[in-house]
Amino acid sequence: MGRGRTGRSGLRRRAGPGHSRQEVRRHRLPQLAGTGIDELTQFKHVERPKDWNLPALKALFELLGLIPGTAQLVTQGNDRPVQQLQKAITEAVERLVLTQQDLQTGLFFWVRSLLPEDEIVKLRAKLDGSKTFLESLQAYTTPGKLKNLRYDVQEITGHRNGLQALEEIELLQELAGDLGSAASYLSTVQAVLPTDHEWNDKMKAVRDEVLDRIGDPVQRGTAGFRQQTQHKLNDLKKAYLRTYISMHVKARLGVNDDKRKARLMGDERLKDLQKLSIIDLMPRQHLSDFQNRLAALKSCFEMTEQELDASPLCPHCKFKPAAEPPGPPAAIILDNFDGEFDKLIEGWTQTLLTNLADPTTKTNLGLLKPAPRCSRAAPPLPRLR
Question: How far is it, in rounded angstroms, from Cα 178 to Cα 70?
Fold first, then answer.
């Protein structure tokens, strides 16, 4: 029997009439003890054992984040490094699958896509190639199988770009996740404040800066980028909290002013005016307008900064500055109601006295008999002062 250089270890029998090509591996040599001489003569040569491609193994371990020197243990028949390798392969494939799914739906931050469509197409191609490569490695589950690894160093290192792309996308996802909550809050706030409010201008400037930096691989990869960006977003949110609370205090009555409003609405003089409003000659529309405007003054004194930190609108009164016309503070409006109420009483009193003193009214009353005169006369004049 001669020796060949086919790269496989064992005996190879030549093919002939009635016989197919047959190989006997080294680990199955003992079975030849029961093989006849005639059959043994059909084997044409003994193959030289295949050498370990240690550089390729080291490149593979390094590619998957494992210690390259561990590959040496595989050549000694150690199963543990192979198990570690297969675990790393499985984890990488799972990451690739999840990331491919995320690319399908898109990566968004602050209502914008973090990756242009043409870049997404390129990344998908890289991820697909690396995934196919890693899945093919799942067959190498023993040291013996790894000895027959069919990839060389160049083929293995060629997939660095795919795994680097995976890491870049995962970094983007992580950044969007860490900063997304604050960005989502600030996006909602944009519709709460009037469009021309200075806070919206600040928000747009910060948003454009953050999106430009997060879209640049070099800038988003710098040390402290995440902390710096989070600090900017937090400062912007704090500025909103101060702005909203100030506007809320202005637009709503506090606890003391709410009591003043209740006293004014329950004032006996207001009830007296309501009794007089049944007289046709009295300006009842003035009274109705006064009461409606007084009732429209909103009170809210329960909101806390913690509640506003969780949601950009007051959970109690749903105050939305963009939806309410600007005006003087509610407390000042309530102060004006006090003076307006005094003038309303004075005007009604004068109107009533003027009408009673009118000659025509006196003449008409004089034409009535005592009983009808009593029935048609105005109700007893309330004490307005």
Answer: 36
> Are both 263 and 369 inside the same structural domain?
yes
Residue 333 lies in a domain: yes
41 and 80 share one domain: no
130-174 pLDDT, tens digit per residue, is: 999 999 999 999 999 999 999 999 999 999 999 999 999 999 999
Strand pairing report for 22-25 and 2-4 = unpaired
Let me know whether 260 and 371 are in one domain.
yes
Gap between the Cα atoms of 270 and 382, Å rounded = 11
How would you classify the pairing of strands 2-4 and 43-47? parallel
- Total domains present in the chain: 3
Token pair for 73: 């243990």
**Are both 37 and 131 inside the same structural domain?**
no
- Eight-class DSSP state of 314: -
**Long-range CB contacts (within 8 A, 24+) of 322-325:** 322/191, 322/192, 322/193, 322/194, 322/195, 324/251
- The angle at the Cα of 127, spanning 116 to 208, to the nearest 5 degrees, equals 25
- Do 24 and 113 lie in one domain? The reply is no
Same domain, 259 and 343: yes
- The model's pTM is 0.72
The answer for residues whose C-beta is within 8 angstroms of residue 77's C-beta and 6 or more apart is 143
Q: Give me the domain span that covers residue 106.
A: 54-169
Residue of 9, 163, 13 whose CA lies nearest to 93: 163
Mean pLDDT of the chain: 85
Pull the structure tokens for residue 163: 């795994």
Q: How far apart are the first and last CA of the chain?
A: 133
Do both 271 and 319 map to the same domain? yes
Contact indicator for 238, 283 with CB cutoff of 8 Å: no
How would you classify residue 284: left for phi > 0, otherwise alpha for psi between -120 and 50, otherwise beta? Answer: alpha
Q: How far is CA 256 from the centre of its chain?
A: 40
Q: Which amino acid is at 14?
A: R
Nearest of 205, 168, 183, 172 to residue 111 by alpha carbon:
183
Report H helices in the chain: 37-40, 54-63, 71-74, 80-105, 117-137, 143-147, 153-157, 160-189, 198-214, 217-220, 225-251, 255-265, 268-276, 284-296, 305-310, 330-357, 359-367, 370-376
* The pLDDT of residue 374: 47
